[in-house]
Amino acid sequence: MQTDSIILDVDGTLWDSTPIVARAWTRAVREGGCTDMTVTADRLKELFGRTMKVIADLLLPEVEEKKRYEIMDNCCEYEHQALEEDECRICYPGVIDTIKALSEKIPVCIVSNCQSGYIELFLKKTGLAPCVKDFECYGNTGRNKADNIRLLVERNQFGSPVYVGDTQGDLEASREAGVPFIFASYGFGQPTEYDGKISSFEELKELTEVHRA
């Protein structure tokens, strides 16, 4: 697959933070009044890939709207603290070395539906900030993933980007943005179709062929 840029999803594509995040969110929802609720890693895998507002609506449908989003803000705050404090090595095999290798030949970027600060935390924990040319997220723009893919592509004047993700939502965002979709099959979801497929992150080096306009 010829490309002049690679845009990456985070959760389910680069790492699996769900066990750590589940503990943080459980603390937040219980403090918010849902005292009998436990957020599990498996439940988060079903929810991740959506915007934080949609996740709040699905996770806490019985909670009054204003309170629901306050709890979700606390979930994000506790999540950030937990990930920053935990000496987690939660990247999928080969992610760090592969991004370093790819970045020497082609721009590597990130677009996620996450909150502000999450991508920055990923880059800090992995030491990959010098290797990632640009990133965008829902928390920064308030826009969906398709819009943010288009925004990043236009900002960097990419001619033939690809998007790498793991869920049906990633597929739909790629299609809406007019960008080929590479399915990371080791992740959380099972999209209905894809333009390319990897069973390990290292396979990106073989699947993608650098194309310069």
Structural summary, described in words:
The structure is a single chain. With 213 residues, the chain is of the alpha/beta class. 46% of the residues lie in helices and 14% in strands. α1 crosses α2 (41-47) and α3 crosses α4. It is globular, with a radius of gyration of 17 Å.
The rounded distance between the terminal residues' Cα atoms is: 15 Å
Cα-atom Rg, whole angstroms? 17 Å
> Which range best describes the helical content: under 10%, 10-25%, 25-40%, 40-55%, 55-70% or over 70%?
40-55%
How many β-strand stretches?
8
N-to-C series of helices and strands: EEHHHHHEHEHHEHEEHE
Mean pLDDT: 94
Q: How many helices? A: 10
Q: What fraction of residues sit in β-strands?
A: 5-15%
Secondary structure class reads: alpha/beta
Give the biggest beta sheet: 6 strands, parallel
Low-confidence stretches: none
Major β-sheet strand ordering: 4-3-2-5-6-7
Q: How would the global form be characterised?
A: globular
Task: List strands and helices in order, with pairings.
Elements: E1 2-3, E2 5-8, H1 18-31, H2 41-47, H3 52-59, H4 65-85, H5 95-103, E3 108-112, H6 118-126, E4 134-137, H7 138-141, H8 145-156, E5 161-165, H9 168-177, E6 181-184, E7 196-198, H10 204-207, E8 209-210
Parallel strand pairs: 1-8, 2-3, 2-5, 3-4, 5-6, 6-7
Helix pairs in contact: 1-2, 1-4, 3-4, 8-9
Summarize this entry quickly.
By secondary structure, the chain is of the alpha/beta class. Helix content is 46%, strand content 14%. 39% of the residues are buried.
Top keywords for this entry?
213 residues; alpha/beta; 6-stranded parallel beta sheet
